[in-house]
Design goal:
The protein has 129 residues and is α+β, with helices and mostly antiparallel strands. It has helices at 14-21, 29-39, 86-93, and strands spanning 62-66, 81-85, 101-105, 108-111, 114-117, 123-127. The chain has 3 helices and 6 strands.
Length: 129
Amino acid sequence: MALPFFPQLKPQTRVEARADAKSLTRVDEKKFRGEVWHRDRNRCRCCGRKVIKTLARVPERGEVHHIHGRVGDLRYDSRAALLLCLQHHERVTGRVNQHRLTVVATKTFKTPQGTFTDAREPVTFREAS
């Protein structure tokens, strides 16, 4: 009578063990962008223009703007992102040098990294000097 064969499983490596021990936050970028589009009701937060999802570089193209950049935990935090039309997104990011805009917060939220603009609340835009 033959003994049953049981394959021997390899032990977990140290890197795999560390990765399992540290709870990683997995965020779907599509879900994050969907939250921002839904919250802002498919309208530019600066001018109120109805924006569309397209790859064409047209003024009514909607783009998600990360107010504080795409760093750390804020990268996928909808509180720190706005929906803007292509025209205003270029002015806010500085791609267009003339008439540059800055985002002015009415409310903020705090994290261990600091205090940031809360995009869930109304924001205003001011021409930078």
